[in-house]
Design goal:
288 residues; alpha/beta; Ubiquitin-like (UB roll); Rossmann fold; 2 domains; five-stranded mixed beta sheet; 11 helices; 37% helix; 17% strand
């Protein structure tokens, strides 16, 4: 044991000697430890923490929480937007503290004013709003809808106003087969509020390799029943209106009235000409 202790003691004095020879006699320790960067020094004066929802982590360098300076909430957010410009693009609002599909909380209390003073050790939580009032002042997006459409809502070029337009729109899709199937899937996923479907066919096994909303379990059922079930599973908030009939001259105008857009998913020229004529007469845009 004494030999081991002696070896350790010798190593200690060797290191001490090396340190003395490495530093000039008149040197001060501070010369070898440069001052902390400005950003690090600022962190020492931080008074509050902002917790971000997962959807925004990538806008803040994959951080789940950020520090806020000791100031008012509005000034702290502006400071944050300077540090993380893309965060500002997605959060900044011209009419309020932040965009309406987000909320700020401190100790369970919603924060809505920019002049609120941040306290020492505050934890501010940024969350998805419980609900959001639409542009018409009546329609609302629930918290679940906000969660579903959050990728739309955080797009500066899209946002809540455009999402509400989708929610309040009505689209008629003629045909639920090879062309209509992917159209119906994406319309429902995007949040179109009302989708009308015209089709009188039933599902055959041979349809499944291209008609992506139908499944083996629905073979023999009507395409309308299958499409309605698929849309409900994908987005329960979408209203589906079914027309289990052919789109013909005798019923075309009655079916098409009231829709904002008609999408032609048919596979024959007579029906396509008819759809075009109806759209011209009613002044409805036609996609084919």
């Amino acid at each position: 044991m004494s030999v081991l202790f002696g070896a350790r003691l010798l190593s200690f004095f060797s290191l001490l000697s090396l340190a003395e020879n490495s530093f000039p006699a008149n040197a001060t320790l501070c010369r070898y430890f440069p001052p902390l960067p400005d950003k690090t020094i600022r962190i020492l004066t931080i008074m509050a923490t902002l917790l971000l929802p997962p959807i925004l982590h990538y806008l803040a360098g994959n951080r789940h929480k950020l520090v806020l300076p000791d100031t008012t909430l509005g000034a702290a957010l502006e400071h944050l937007y300077t540090e993380y410009p893309q965060l500002g693009v997605n959060l900044r609002s011209d009419s309020g503290l932040i965009r309406s599909h987000f909320s700020l909380y401190r100790d369970g209390e919603m924060l809505t004013r920019a002049d609120i003073i941040l306290r020492k050790d505050d934890t501010i939580e940024l969350t998805l709003a419980e609900k959001n009032t639409g542009a018409d002042g009546q329609s609302e997006l629930s918290r679940e809808e906000i969660r579903q459409y959050i990728r739309h809502l955080t797009l500066p070029e899209f946002g809540m106003r455009s999402q509400m337009k989708l929610r309040n729109s009505k689209v008629l899709v003629i045909g639920a087969g090879g062309l209509g199937s992917p159209v119906l899937m994406y319309l429902a996923a995007a949040g179109v509020g009302t989708i009308g479907i015209v089709d009188e066919d039933s599902i055959d096994t041979s349809n499944l390799q291209r008609q992506v909303i139908h499944s083996h379990a629905m073979v023999g059922s009507s395409k309308l029943t299958s499409a309605r079930r698929f849309i409900h599973d994908l987005n329960p908030g979408v209203r589906v209106i079914s027309y289990e009939t052919k789109f013909i001259a005798e019923n075309a105008l009655d079916i098409a009235k009231g829709y904002d857009l008609i999408i032609d998913g048919t596979d024959n020229f007579p029906t396509r000409y008819l759809v075009n004529d109806v759209c011209v007469l009613l002044g409805i845009p036609n996609i084919y």
